[in-house]
């Protein structure tokens, strides 16, 4: 025979202060789990949606995976457009985007900023970077830039400092912000875009970092890769954009492993918090537990009731943390080496966070309950 469900609920209400403190402790632990899992999910999503299956990146063979270190000749885009048949072309315009990509110190009007990511582009860039959408203002003219919606986070500045008409300073020049763009949460949203010619003049460079080519649907990147291998004099390397961002995911794999390790450590701390609460709770109820056994309740039924208390408390803490995470954490922008991205509290994060919370309730309840049930009934009835 099992104990009534209401019995465990009433036991929690009998110790309101202890119950409230434990609820806060468990909710805090689960909230930390949500933060770490949201960080992992946000990073993975940002890299996953940044690539386009139809886009191939051509960069220097010596740059390895770091395109910032790439340097290719300025004539490369015209050579690629003339030599490749699979390039998308519409109304006489080749969907080829020559770009100069650089990490540099960016200052705002209110003071020195942080390390920003600047991409010099031409008007053909939106034909290749199809996820980029201008949401406010105009395309940058000479001496102007447009900023992604996460640039303020990347620079560590207030969003008001990057409003239209404000100025940024980098590479020894001042630039006026003419527009803002979004890209569906991709890595581009933490970048500053400016006219390629202006950027080359400011950096005193005539070369490019990369050329992005949009292929016709169904065409293979092998054609571009074959061209790069045949033209050894150009020292080029071609990689499909999705493969490039997949390699970045592998690059950040140690970070994700460390984040999961933090989840384990935080969960372990939560188990100890639950153990502390349940040991204190059960220690004062030895006579009660012995009485329940004396009137005929089996040890399994009593064990189940004690575990029920821990699970109820953990479930309440998980629910509270889940609501707070969805309202406050979901979509929060954070800085990272690759730029900036938003925390993502999705169904997977909710499942992991609540699962950890319930697990804390079970693991925190079992040891003290088993310890109390090992006491002899006669000894327990004499306990004070």
TrEMBL record:
Residues 19-225 form the MacB-like periplasmic core domain. It is a multi-pass membrane protein. It comes from the Bacteria. The chain crosses the membrane at residues 20-40, 257-279, 300-328, 348-366. It is found in: Cell membrane. Coiled coil: none annotated. InterPro entries: ABC-4/HrtB_transporter, ABC3_permease_C, MacB_PCD. Keywords: Cell membrane, Membrane, Transmembrane, Transmembrane helix. One of its GO terms (cellular component) is plasma membrane. Residues 261-376 form the ABC3 transporter permease C-terminal domain. This is Membrane protein containing DUF214, permase predicted. It comes from Rhodopirellula europaea SH398.
């Amino acid at each position: 025979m099992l104990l009534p469900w209401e019995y465990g609920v009433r036991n929690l209400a009998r110790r309101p202060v202890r119950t409230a403190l434990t609820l806060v402790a468990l909710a805090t632990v689960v909230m930390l789990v949500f933060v770490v899992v949201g960080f992992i999910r946000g990073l993975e999503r940002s890299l996953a949606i940044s690539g386009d299956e139809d886009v191939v990146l051509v960069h220097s063979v010596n740059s390895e995976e770091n395109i910032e270190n790439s340097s290719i000749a300025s004539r490369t885009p015209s050579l690629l457009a003339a030599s490749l048949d699979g390039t998308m072309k519409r109304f006489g315009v080749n969907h080829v985007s020559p770009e100069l990509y650089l990490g540099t110190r960016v200052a705002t009007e209110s003071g020195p900023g942080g390390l920003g990511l600047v991409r010099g582009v031409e008007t053909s860039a939106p034909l290749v970077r199809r996820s980029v959408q201008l949401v406010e203002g105009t395309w940058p003219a000479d001496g102007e830039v447009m900023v992604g919606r996460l640039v303020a986070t990347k620079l560590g500045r207030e969003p008001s400092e990057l409003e239209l008409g404000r100025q940024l300073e980098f590479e020894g020049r001042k630039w006026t912000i003419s527009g803002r763009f979004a890209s569906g949460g991709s890595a581009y949203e933490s970048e500053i875009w400016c006219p390629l010619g202006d950027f080359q003049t400011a950096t005193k460079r005539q070369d490019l970092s990369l050329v992005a080519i949009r292929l016709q649907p169904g065409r293979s990147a092998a054609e571009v890769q074959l061209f790069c291998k045949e033209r050894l004099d150009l020292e080029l390397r071609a990689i499909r954009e999705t493969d490039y961002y997949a390699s970045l995911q592998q690059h950040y794999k140690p970070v994700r492993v460390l984040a999961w390790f933090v989840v384990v450590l935080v969960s372990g701390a939560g188990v100890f918090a639950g153990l502390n609460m349940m040991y204190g709770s059960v220690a004062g109820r030895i006579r009660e537990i012995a009485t329940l056994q004396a009137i005929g309740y089996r040890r399994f039924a009593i064990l189940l009731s004690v575990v029920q208390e821990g699970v109820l408390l953990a479930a309440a803490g998980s629910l509270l943390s889940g609501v707070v995470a969805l309202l406050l954490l979901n979509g929060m922008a954070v800085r990272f080496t690759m730029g900036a991205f938003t925390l993502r509290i999705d169904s997977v994060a909710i499942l992991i966070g609540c699962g950890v919370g319930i697990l804390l309730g079970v693991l925190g309840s079992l040891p003290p309950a088993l310890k109390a049930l090992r006491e002899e009934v006669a000894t327990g009835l004499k306990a004070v």
